[in-house]
Amino acid sequence: MNNKQSLLASLQQSRERVLELLNSLSAQQTKVPYLPGINPPIWEVGHAAFSSSGLFCKT
Length: 59
What we know:
Blueprint: H1 3-23, H2 27-30, H3 41-56
């Protein structure tokens, strides 16, 4: 396995683990009180996914 394949495999494993953790939460557990400077967990995951998609989709 070359470096690119290894990186892609690691990213896929990370994605699967994040989805597993998020899917284990109840709807109530995803609702958090507003605190200045702290984003809700779902927003953080969405932001990371959006940001990384632009980074990794460029050729």
